[in-house]
Design brief:
The chain is α/β, with parallel strands linked by helices and about 260 residues long. It has helices at about 30-40, 50-60, 70-80, 115-125, 140-150, 165-175, 240-255, and strands at about 5, 15, 90-95, 130-135, 155-160, 175-185, 190, 200, 205-215, 225. Strand 8 (about 200) and strand 9 form a beta hairpin.
């Protein structure tokens, strides 16, 4: 019922959380756990993964099963470490078992599913992609933790122990942009249609702005448009399928 915090992997020894038997209950208290990791690990996120990838992979390969799986506390610990990261970061969770210890416990009657929904909201708010990698052949209850990946843009995959290095390399080489904002302009014969939350239109409905946050190579952005019914009442909107609309969105964005 403890966690070993290695941070960026450059440290010679991990920080043990909790540090004493009297603190064991803090694995169930996400607030106290967050503050504990944040205060004790100020210098544990100094290097990017490009410099410490070898150390991180060795740590992962040396991990051995030892009683329970504190998956929820590990997520809280990662969230706390992000406070000390020097740049934009992603969270990669490698697990060989279902969460059954501390906050986020998925054992029957523990209601841990709600924890992962709430963590997804928190990680999305700070624009942190979170992905889960389950060791093949183990029961990891991936369906319960899936909400985090859906809202943060992460992935869920099954992999072998020996594939860990390949999975980290994929993330290391991926093209990801953070804090992205988009602005779409259409000519006056057209107007943009009010739609989903987060999209802002000007008074004439010809300029749309939206904060997208994290954008990856395979990200898509859609919006609705039509002829202005006030100035162009004699015009009708031609039939357009989703592919045509998305192409128009791209061309307008490029202009």
């Amino acid at each position: 019922n403890k966690m070993e915090i290695y941070g960026d992997g450059a440290q010679t020894a991990p920080i043990i959380v909790p540090s004493g038997e009297s603190e064991n209950s803090k694995l169930d208290d996400r607030v106290k756990l967050f503050q504990m990791v944040k205060s004790r690990c100020r210098n544990y996120m100094m290097s990017p993964i490009t410099k410490t990838k070898g150390q991180i992979i060795k740590i992962l390969q040396d991990v051995a099963p030892n009683y329970s799986t504190a998956l929820g506390p590990a997520l809280v610990g990662a969230q706390a470490l992000l406070k000390h990261a020097k740049g934009e970061s992603q969270v990669l969770v490698f697990t060989d078992g279902a969460a059954n210890c501390g906050c986020g416990n998925l054992d029957p009657g523990q209601h841990g599913e709600q924890f992962y929904k709430e963590m997804g909201v928190k990680l999305k708010k700070i624009e942190t992609i979170t992905s889960f990698y389950a060791i093949k052949g183990e029961s990891c209850r991936l369906e319960a933790i899936a909400p985090i990946t859906r809202v943060t843009g992460g992935v869920i995959r099954s992999c072998e122990i020996m594939e860990l290095e390949d999975q980290i390399a994929i993330v290391e080489k991926s093209n990801t942009a953070y804090n992205v904002k988009i602005k779409v302009l259409v000519p006056s014969p057209l107007q943009l249609m009010p739609s989903t939350e987060g999209k802002k239109l000007n008074k004439r409905n010809t300029v749309l702005t939206q904060k997208l946050g994290i954008v990856k190579e395979n990200s898509y952005f859609f919006f609705e448009y039509g002829y202005n019914p006030v100035s162009y009442t004699h015009l009708t909107l031609p039939t357009s399928d989703l592919v045509q609309i998305s192409l128009v969105a791209v061309s307008l964005q490029n202009k």
